[in-house]
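Researcher: Please translate sequence to structure tokens.
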Amino acid sequence: MTEHAHGQIGTPQVPVCPRHPDRVSYVRCQRCGRPACPECQRPAAVGIQCVDCVNEARARVPATRTVLGGRARGGRPVVTITLIALCVVAYLAQRVPGLTVTGSFIFMPALGVQEPYRFLTSAFLHGGTLHLALNMYALWIVGSVLEPALGRWRFTALYLLSAVGGSVAVLLLANPAGPSWSTSVVGASGAVFGLFAAIFIVMRKFGRDATQILILIALNFVLGFVFAGISWQSHLGGALTGALLALAYAHAPRNRRTLVGVVATVFVAALLVALVVARYAPLLG
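Model: Translation complete:
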């Protein structure tokens, strides 16, 4: 008797989404041919592409840059809005009975050596509603221009280091034997003056008329001598710090903007630390 072998007919595999193996999909990506479930489908010029192919193609597209090398993102200035929100939240916290926000984070030269975080935290505190409103208005007006031009990380570095630079100037110009050593300072004015100096330098670089900015800086600086309770030292320190960083950011060679930006930021930060150490060293020795 002749035996006949019967081959087993294979069951065709059901197409499933690579990202979600529990989901059956008969729709395939026009680019890679893999199945894509509705969650992973992206409309394309022709047919449907999977999310992985879309992300891969997007990563290959060179980032659009501004005239100063910042990534052109569009939309609202996220860093500027975040800084304003932090200042507003800190101000509200200052007004909560029982919280010692002002006393814990305010800057004065006598406390800086034991609690160096005060060099920065004082820039997020304010002495009154008008003080807060004026600084936040200036931050919004200038930040809305500088943040897109410089990019987020350089703008953030410019603002924070200018804030620290303002406190450092207060320290350097204070007399350890006088009342200025125990005089407290609050406000974002140092950081704002850093932005003023930076936008002045940027406008000059591109041949724009910066007269109004220069007048604004001069008027605000003079107010520190006319009205009591305004720290012209902080304004000066913030402006000098912002100017130094802006010079590096704005005049860096096109193909070395990132490198120059990082080096300049690290250098200015190290310089501020060195000035603080040099100021406190004789008093601690």
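Researcher: Any highlights?
Model: The longest helix spans residues 257-284.
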